[in-house]
Amino acid sequence: MSDGSAKLEAFRKEVRTWLRENLPKGWGTPEYKDPERFSTEAHELGKLWQKKLYDAGYAGFGYPKEYGGVERPPEEIAVIREELLRHGSPFGPLSLGLLMAAPTIMAHGEEWQKERFIPKILSGEESWCELFSEPNAGSDVANIQTTAVKEGDEWVVNGQKIWTSMWEFSDWGILAARSDPNAPRHHNLTCFIVDCKSPGYTKLPLKQMTGTSEFGEEYFDNVRIPDKNRLGEVNKGWGVILAGLMAERSGGGAFWGGMGGGRSATGGAARGIGMLSVKAIIDLAKETHHYGRAVWDDPVFRQKIANLAIEVEAMRYSGLRMVAKMRKGIMPTNEASIVKNFQAEMRRRQGDMVMEIIGAYSQLMRDSKRAIDGGEWVYQMMRARGATIEMGTSEINRNIIAERVLGLPR
Amino acid sequence: MEFGLTEEQEMLKTSAREFLEKESNRNHIRTMMEDEIGYSPELWKKMAGLGWVGLIFPGEYGGGEMGFRDLTVLCEEMGRALLPSPFVSTVILSGMPLLFAGTDKQKQEFLPEVAQGKQILTLAILEEDGDFWPGSIKTRAEKRGSEYILNGTKLFVWDAKAADYLLCAARTKHSSDPEDGITLFLLDAKEWGVYISPLNNLDLLRRQYEVVLSNVPVPAENIVGELNNGWAILKKMSLYATVALCAEMIGCGDKVLETTVSYAKERIAFGVPIGSFQTIKHKCADMLSGLEYARSLMEWAALALDDDDPDAPLAVSMAKASCGDVCKMVCDEGVQIHGGIGYTWDHDMHLYFKRVRASDTAFGDGNYHRELIARYIE
Ligand SMILES: Cc1cc2nc3c(=O)[nH]c(=O)nc-3n(C[C@H](O)[C@H](O)[C@H](O)COP(=O)(O)OP(=O)(O)OC[C@H]3O[C@@H](n4cnc5c(N)ncnc54)[C@H](O)[C@@H]3O)c2cc1C
């Protein structure tokens, strides 16, 4: 063993020990009970976990030190990722801060904004939401009708936002509003960092087909935002929106792409990630019998599960290629749409296949005593229907790939 | 074989659509989603009054003497309207086995009452694996004097809280052939030892239950068909049930397509209706094409059953595999084309999505039926 790899193995041991000591009690055993999805408890657990990771130096990579970034050799970062995946760590609903807000602020924010906001995103202390979509501005996000009018050194915002993930727990939001009623499309929007506790900011839940209220809607009634919280230049909000969308499509795509269904019975809140989800599905196929035979012994399912394994690896190596490019300073832009669609559509295929494996049990979710693995697979199958709509629908991302990556005529 | 609708069937279809649009409207559905039992007794009485419940029963039992193909016309409309009712459970899953194999006395006792809407029946068959096959029947019935004592657990039982009687499959003999030794019992749902608890399944408009039978006494005269030969009856019934579900799925799919197309004409993005984008057009075109082919197979299967055609089982399997796959696709695209709004609880899209998926798993999914098809066509 070379010196380097011996050191890396020692580091791996260190991470494992840390995880064993810091994961919630009973984690990874059937005794561990997941808190209700999107509950305050789940949110707090996620925040606490991010903070613990960050304090231990196991999170916060990819940002400069002055904004709270944590520096580490890439090999060690890879070890941390692997160990986190292996243990299935509690996943907090902090995704939009890490995936969307932080990269967008890095790209377009002023110095004070970076200093003030990024460290608390990395440490999990503050949560974020993305306030782009409106009832008449979804795919056509440039059609935003919410208005922002400058009054002195403040902006006064009026309008409605919809389908907002993290609506309930966010401290801050990245808001896009129409700042110039007369300017042409793409030159009339400005982005802001809005305090979700501002007077005049009302939030309401919206129930999804899964039965949970993961997204919500907000009403802005003369909400006042100081001009210093403007993100980017006046009427240059379109560029900020695109940066945010691309960040969540590439990051979100790569991140979510690995999330499989969960196996509460064997892994607590552990959602199978990457090959773990394939392993979990194989276990499920071995335990589940149809017409007197284990599903895993059925060639039809062996083919399907093998296909899933191929997709998971394809995604993993595509992620690594993307990281390699980024190291050379080539940032993904419109290619993010490829990642986004692949993960979303793969989640749907995976969900459908698991439903075929569990048969009649595909009708039972968490509140059924007979649900398999706490209904997690069924939830994931339905949630995947949202995946092909959020962060740009599959159709919109295909348009981007065709027109902006391949240059096909519009 | 006469494809398409006869004049009589056209009338049935039109009147059913009018009736259900009025009675099983959005308001009714949303109320029923919160209802513990999941159907409206008043509406059920009205349906019986229209002759729907006894549609296929012989005249001597107060029925309408119509054929199975006629019934599928009704099922299609019920699927379209997402009608929450124990219709399939009562008429097909339990009524048909009684018709096929019940004694004269049993038929006289039950069918007229059923046709009048006074008795609701359901089938308690599936067990641990949730599959419709004889090997999974573990519930036991042991003879004690003139009674049988039933013990076991039934799962995925539709409409059990609404039912007066359960038609239950139990093992009365052990044999190397799993089909041999299964007997059907008609038992009072209120009988001592019958424990019914909700499974809280996704489709809130067709509620499913776990039924635990703990030393439930059933008189021997309540055996439907021959002792130990119950499976053949269920197998025959399952062909009809499968096609009825296909018709329902087609009804769901048609409604989803209709709603989606009208949304695509209205919804504006980038200054134009989303239906003007070629990708949306193609999706809608594929939905329609899929539904057309699936419908043809469903009609063939229904007619083949009415004609006692020896190819009926093949037609049924083809219809089921096709209707399941196509209608799942149609619902997926329906949600997708609606965008964010189609993913909400408030929109009806998910109700169709869940109903179709539930029907897809019932009486064998596409994988199961494709295997059967392969055996038939060899
Ligand atoms: C689970 C979930 C979470 C979300 N979270 C957030 C969030 O946190 N913040 C936020 O701002 N938004 C969020 N959204 C909103 C999401 O971004 C929008 O729903 C999405 O962009 C689609 O917009 P829409 O719903 O208005 O559908 P529409 O834009 O009306 O689209 C309807 C259909 O038309 C198609 N279509 C539209 N334009 C074209 C075109 N040019 N070519 C081809 N097809 C087209 C679409 O693909 C879709 O199938 C979320 C949505 C979901 C489902």
Instruction: Figure out the total of helices of chain B.
Output: 11
Q: Helices and strands of chain B: which structural class?
A: alpha+beta
Overall shape of chain A: it is globular
CATH architecture of the largest domain in chain B: Up-down Bundle
The gyration radius over C-alpha positions of chain B equals 21 Å
The largest beta-sheet of chain A arranges its strands as 1-4-5-8
CATH fold-level name of the largest domain in chain A? Butyryl-CoA Dehydrogenase, subunit A, domain 3
Mean pLDDT across all amino acids of chain A: 88
The string of secondary-structure elements of chain A, in order, is HHHHHEEEEEEEEHEHEHEEHHHH
CATH class category of the largest domain in chain B: Mainly Alpha
How many runs of DSSP E, i.e. beta strands of chain B?
A: 10
Tag the structure with descriptive keywords.
heterodimer; A: about 400 residues; alpha+beta; Butyryl-CoA Dehydrogenase, subunit A, domain 2; Butyryl-CoA Dehydrogenase, subunit A, domain 3; 3 domains; 4-stranded mixed β-sheet; 4-stranded antiparallel β-sheet; about 15% strand; globular; B: about 375 residues; Butyryl-Coa Dehydrogenase, subunit A, domain 1; 11 helices; about 50% helix; binds flavin-adenine dinucleotide
Structural notes for this entry:
- The complex is a heterodimer of chains A (410) and B (378).
- Helices cover 46% and strands 16% of the residues of chain A.
- With 410 residues, chain A is of the alpha+beta class.
- Chain A has 3 domains: 3-93, no CATH class; 128-235, Butyryl-CoA Dehydrogenase, subunit A, domain 2 (Beta Barrel); 245-405, Butyryl-CoA Dehydrogenase, subunit A, domain 3, CATH 1.20.140.10.
- A 4-stranded mixed beta sheet of chain A has the order 1-4-5-8.
- Mean pLDDT of chain A is 88; it is low at 253-273.
- The two termini of chain B are 25 Å apart.
- In chain B, helix 5 runs antiparallel to helix 7 and helix 7 packs antiparallel against helix 10 (349-361).
- Chain B contains 11 helices and 10 strands.
- Chain B has 3 domains: 7-118, Orthogonal Bundle (Butyryl-Coa Dehydrogenase, subunit A, domain 1); 122-229, Beta Barrel (Butyryl-CoA Dehydrogenase, subunit A, domain 2); 232-377, Up-down Bundle (Butyryl-CoA Dehydrogenase, subunit A, domain 3), CATH 1.20.140.10.
- Chain B has helices spanning 7-23, 26-34, 41-49, 68-81, 87-101, 104-115, 230-266, 278-306, 312-338, 349-361, 366-377, and strands at 121-124, 140-144, 147-158, 165-171, 182-188, 194-198, 208-219, 223-224, 268-269, 272-273.
- The chains are: A alpha+beta (410), B alpha+beta (378).
- Chains A and B meet through strand 11, helix 10, helix 11 and helix 12 of A and strand 9, helix 9 and helix 10 of B.
- The complex binds flavin-adenine dinucleotide.
